[in-house]
Each structure stands twice: as C-alpha cells, then as structure tokens.
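Quiz preparation item.
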C-alpha cells in the first residue's frame, strides 16, 4: 500500500493521480454533448468511483449514453477519452504521443526511464550496434570489461563506429582512427598534431549503461540519472530466469495499449485461454503510483491480475508448476517511431542452482505472414497473436475515427496518464515512476492474489 492509500508494490513512492475527473454514480443519468467540447465539468464532475459501465453510442456527431465507471480513475474531460464514435485523436495529438526521437514530447518523456537495450553476454570483443528511441548507438566493452554506450556516428565525419575496433581503453573509428573512451573523451587523432586542442574539445555522445539480470540497461535522459527501478524479478535471489526479446514492426504505443487492454484476451487469445473465449469479463482497473493494476475475472471462475508499469512495461504471472508460479516482466522499448523491441524475463523458483538463460530465438518477424482467423480462432502463440493484430493497425495506428467502448477503459486510462506525464516533463518535473533518493533502492514487489472484489486470483 502506498502512503496515498493506493494498492500496489511494497515500495513507497508518490502518487501521480492528478487532474482526475470521475463521473458521478447517479442511478442513471444521460449525458449529451458535442464531440469537440470539454465534458463533465461543473456539478457532474464530482470525484467518485465503484460504478458499472453500460452503453454508449453516437448520433449525428453528438455522444449520447449512460456512463458508469468500474473502480477506475479516468478523465473524460478530453475528447481523446470519450467513448463512442468520434474523431478520438487528431493527427497532431497522435504524433505527440507516438514520436520518440530526440526533442519530441513523448521522446523527452521516454528518456527519463531506464530501458534494456541488449543482452550482456552478447557484448564481448566486438562493437554491437543497437537502436533505441530513434538514436543509433554502439555498445562495447573496454579492456577492463566496463560497458560503453556511445553514439553510432563518429564525431569526425560520421563513419559508423560499429565498424570500429575495440581497444583496451576505448573504441577506434575505422575511417581515420579517432579513438574514444566510454565517457566520450577523444583519446587519439592519429593524423593531427600531438598538441591539437581538438582532442580536448571533441566529445562523442555517450549514455550511462548498467548490467542487470543478463540485460544491458541504458539511461538516455538529462542528468542526474534516476535510481534504477529495483523490480523484484530483476533482483530476487533463488530464481532461474529465461531472458529473450522479439521485435514488432509497429509503434510503441500500440504495444503499450495492448498491455492495458484486458478485454482482447476473450477473442484474440481464445486459443490460449479457452476458458475466457467470448465471455464478458468483470475487470477492475486501479491507478497506482507505478501505473495501472488490472484484475480480470470471468463467470466460470478464471481470474488473473496484471500490473502495467508506466510508460510501457508490465509485470504479471504465468502458469504454475505445483505451487511454483512463473513471474514475467516485459519491457516494450521503442526502437524508433515504427518498431518496438520487447525484452522479457521469465523467472521461477529454482529447483537446483539458479541461472540466467538467454533465449536464442530472437528474430524480427516479417509483417503480414499470419494465419487467418478460422473456427478455432488463431492457431498462433499469444505473442504472435498480439503482433498480428497490432501490426494490422498500421505501422503507426492513426487513432482517428476510433469507436471507443466501455471495454476500452484501460486504454483511456493509459492515454490520460501519457498526456499527464508529457505535461509533467514539459514543466521540468519528474514523470510517474521515476525514483530518486535512498528509497529508490527498495525492492519493488507485486501481488498475484489480491482483488478488491474479494476474489482469489490464480496466477
């Protein structure tokens, strides 16, 4: 429980539920407003929760319906959050959320967090090119074994440092031999005079990097860097971990929205979860200090709980082997505006000696090679089912003309959080989940069997 009374991990942190408007839970009330105006201001904008959601529809450019929300904190004061057929997001708004390059609103937000960029055991004697948040970078180890993360283009004339040579104290460009250490300092310019001032003036752009649980993490934002988030699955002793990654040819926001969209499981994942196929679930969403906690339950008793770690990660629980559940952590890393790399860690209590195993199945899938929906729904692994659906929305989903329904509450919560977080960064403040101070070293744990409605969640 956070100090603000918000359910979640054991770690103490601030709440970031700001500027939240709830719909008053009257027995029944109708709202009618043009789709372009702000809604639910004044007496209807009282703070309440614990209501149930019913129908919503649109007629002639005006939204009509009875709106009730189930255990969630969601703002309906912006047109991007209005359920029903409307221009739910303008192209400019969509670009604000989806573009992640340097200097973009979402890019500035994403650079406030630590992100995995590659596998530790794959960074050895040769430079490794990676692309993160629209920037080309190079990973290397110097002679001491220390990691360096440096811009791909040599500051001299832009040759790729992935073609360079790693030496004991840095990496040397293949083109003219300029050498840089892992801090970005230039150590050598072979064709220049020994006393040239250029050597002191020229620096390569570098970023902090650290190794945790078999992965290399990078921080690409302004200094000082925040504390590294001590998620339990990264630091718990006694676990055997399997790590891996897969790439999707779509924007990061499609991946993040999928993570908070609990309702797609009843159709897209019907072959994986036959107990939920086409059933109407009871879902609770809760805003927490770390993001969103969702509890999902269907009438036959199947239930699960998952945690969305803002801005794009998730922590949930997999199949049990006896009393030993698997623990899963996913990081959805924007490669650029059109690709997303998902790094995952699966952990289970070790029966023997704990170890970390790298899944060698990493590969980039080609768009458009998925099975069509048949009577048995999708004959694919759930990961590929997600990929098929998300890539079919377009490389960058336009989000104009969407029909948002009550089942999209999780998506609406996420969009509100994203908008708030971007505004927070623009004010020069830390966004949600950024940790500073000594409490940043506390282990962050998550529950698997707690639901406010009283049901036991089987992990």
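Solution:
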């Amino acid at each position: 429980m956070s100090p603000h009374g918000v359910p979640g991990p054991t770690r103490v942190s601030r709440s970031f539920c700001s500027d939240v408007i709830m719909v008053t839970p009257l027995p029944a009330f109708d709202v009618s407003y043009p789709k372009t105006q702000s809604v639910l201001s004044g007496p209807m904008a009282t703070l309440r929760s614990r209501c149930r959601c019913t129908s919503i529809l649109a007629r002639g450019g005006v939204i009509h319906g009875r709106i009730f929300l189930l255990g969630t904190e969601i703002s309906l004061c912006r047109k991007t959050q209005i359920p029903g057929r409307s221009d739910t997001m303008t192209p400019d708004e969509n670009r604000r959320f989806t573009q992640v390059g340097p200097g973009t609103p979402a890019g500035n937000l994403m650079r406030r967090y630590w992100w995995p960029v590659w596998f530790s055991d794959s960074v050895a004697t040769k430079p490794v090119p990676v692309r993160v948040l629209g920037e080309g970078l190079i990973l290397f180890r110097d002679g001491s074994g220390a990691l360096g993360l440096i811009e791909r283009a040599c500051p001299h004339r832009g040759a790729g440092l992935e073609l360079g040579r790693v030496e004991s104290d840095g990496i040397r460009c293949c083109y003219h031999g300029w050498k840089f250490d892992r801090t970005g300092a230039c150590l050598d310019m072979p064709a220049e005079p020994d006393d040239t001032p250029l050597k002191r003036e020229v620096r390569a752009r570098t970023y902090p990097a650290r190794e945790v649980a078999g992965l290399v993490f990078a921080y690409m934002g302004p200094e000082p860097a925040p504390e590294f988030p001590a998620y339990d699955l990264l630091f718990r002793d006694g676990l055997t971990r399997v790590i891996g990654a897969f790439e999707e040819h779509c924007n990061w926001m499609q991946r993040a929205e999928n993570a908070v969209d609990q309702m797609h499981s009843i159709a897209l994942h019907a072959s994986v979860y036959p107990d939920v196929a086409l059933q109407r679930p009871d879902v609770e969403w809760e805003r927490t200090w770390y993001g969103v906690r969702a509890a999902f339950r269907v009438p036959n008793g199947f239930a699960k709980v998952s945690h969305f770690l803002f801005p794009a990660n998730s922590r949930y629980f997999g199949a049990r082997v006896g009393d030993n559940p698997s623990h899963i952590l996913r990081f959805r890393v924007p490669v650029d505006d059109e690709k997303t790399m998902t790094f995952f860690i699966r952990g289970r209590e070790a029966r023997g000696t704990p170890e970390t195993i790298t899944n060698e199945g990493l590969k980039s899938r080609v768009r458009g090679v998925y099975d069509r929906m048949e009577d048995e729904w999708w004959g694919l692994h759930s990961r590929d089912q997600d990929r098929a659906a998300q890539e079919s929305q377009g490389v960058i989903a336009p989000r104009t003309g969407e029909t948002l329904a009550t089942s999209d509450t999780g998506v609406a919560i996420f969009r509100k959080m994203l908008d708030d977080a971007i505004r927070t960064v623009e004010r020069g403040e830390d966004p949600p989940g950024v940790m500073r101070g000594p409490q940043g070293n506390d282990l962050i744990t998550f529950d698997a069997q707690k639901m406010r409605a009283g049901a036991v969640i089987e992990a």
